[in-house]
Amino acid sequence: MASVLLINGPNLNMLGKREPHIYGSETLSDIVGHAEKVMAELGGTLTHVQSNHEGVIIDAIHSAWGVHDGIIINPGAFTHYSYAIRDAIATVQLPTIEVHISNVHAREEFRHHSVISAVTVGQIVGLGSDGYEWALRAMVRRLEKNKKM
User: Fold this and answer.
1) Which of 11, 76, 130, 141 is the most buried (most CB within 10 A)?
2) Who contacts 34 (Cβ-Cβ below 8 Å, separation ≥6)?
């Protein structure tokens, strides 16, 4: 049974209110609820953390070591400059998938670069809230394949 930590960064607690033309009308609670159903369907467990504070996210990543099998993270704006979150992911060495609701590559220039992506196994962008589901399915599949090796 896979255990995945889902982390959502700054301003994602405002989903449903924040720029719905970009991020949609679903709330973070809607997205997490759907993710929990997907993980139950896949026979796994999901733990969710959301914070607007970098240190809380780093602590959550550190706490995942030895507890969870993988991490799904939407680092929000931290994507573009948080070397501390990047280093935390590298430190725990858990497979991590980066998710973004919007297509960051079709937006402002500063959103085109992720300092996080270099330490992830993949990145899903621009698929709306469905990106979380695809990330979870990909993570569980990857974990199952690794167990067989």
Assistant:
1) 76
2) 129, 132, 133
Compute CA distances 36 → 39, 41, 64, 86, whole Å: 5, 9, 17, 25
Q: What is the mean pLDDT of each run of 10 residues along the chain (149 residues)?
A: 97 91 90 98 97 98 98 96 97 98 78 90 96 98 88
- Point out the catalytic residue in the list 23, 48, 68, 132: 23
Pure H helices in the chain: 20-23, 28-41, 54-64, 83-92, 130-148
- End-to-end alpha carbon distance in the chain: 16
- What residues does 70 pair with on adjacent strands? 4
Q: Is 81 a catalytic residue?
A: no
Q: What angle do CA 100, 15, 55 make, to 5 degrees?
A: 70
Token digits for 149?
Answer: 């090796």
CB 84 within 8 A of CB 16: no
Q: What predicted TM-score, i.e. pTM, was given to this entire model? A: 0.94
**pLDDT value, residue 11:** 95
Q: 48, 68, 100, 132: which is the annotated catalytic residue? A: 100
